[in-house]
Amino acid sequence: MRLIRDKVREFSAVTGLTISIPKSKFYFGEVDEESNEIIQQTIGNFLWSGKECFTRKAPIPWDHISDPVSADGLNLIYLKDWNKTTIGKLLWNVFVKKDRLWINWVHLYYLEKKDVATYIPKTANKYETKKIYHLFRGPIPKVSWRNLFYGNIARPRVTFTLLMACQDRLPTKDRLLKFGTIIDGKYAYYGFQERCRLLFFECEVAKRIWSQVLNWLNISHRSRGWDTELNVISKMTSGKECRKKLLKLAFTETVYAIWTTRNMIIFYNKKEDCLKSKDIIEKVLCRADKSNKLAMFCNRL
């Protein structure tokens, strides 16, 4: 990867042209199983720690991270299954696209006009890469709160925090106590035992802040605990209406604000009054301003 990066930079320096990352793809050939594991581990290390060096900090298994958004994953490609899929596509091309120059070359010089395998497709249907990849991945059950991640325009780090909270993988004190990392499990806002469900919408501080954000949206709703709130808000945000999009954004920003305020109280000795609904609403307005429809709807609130 470093060699490819250096050559691309050298090309840019010589020609004055820059590569378009969104339009670029890298393909690797003859990658063995060990190298495949190293590549996947490096990606995982960067995801969880921001560095490529080895880390044991992986609260969510990589194969679950590769699940689709509907199954509470990030829809990242699982390299093992993707390699099988792309190899299948190459074999498919060798079978059915014999009018291509490179296919003729393979048949002439490598296969010597013999069949690749005993089975030959009767019809030259299209090879659906996406469908074959999902067949390799197998059936993956969907989660009830998947609507919260469809079309969510919140910042990536905010959405990622919500994903961790939904899977109960945030490093709350009850989880850290299990691993023996800490000995004090007291809640940041009060003296209770800290856990994810108490942190989000079960304590009075979080309830009050979330209620103020809902009042700003002109939504009459009372929080009834974390698990129930996830399902209720997910159903309320199903659709493309502006109010539903704003509710989804506001819910995500509120969860993130509660979590970051909890960290500030613990690590920087801040007070609980630094969590304000006004700051959350400002973040929502800032993100909504990127859409003309949402900006116009916010002006009417």
UniProtKB/TrEMBL annotation:
Q: Which organism is it from?
A: Pisum sativum
Report domain Reverse transcriptase zinc-binding positions: 127-210
The protein depicted here goes by the name Reverse transcriptase zinc-binding domain-containing protein
Per the record, a Pfam family? zf-RVT
Q: Which InterPro entries match?
A: RVT-Znf
Q: Which domain of life does this protein belong to?
A: Eukaryota
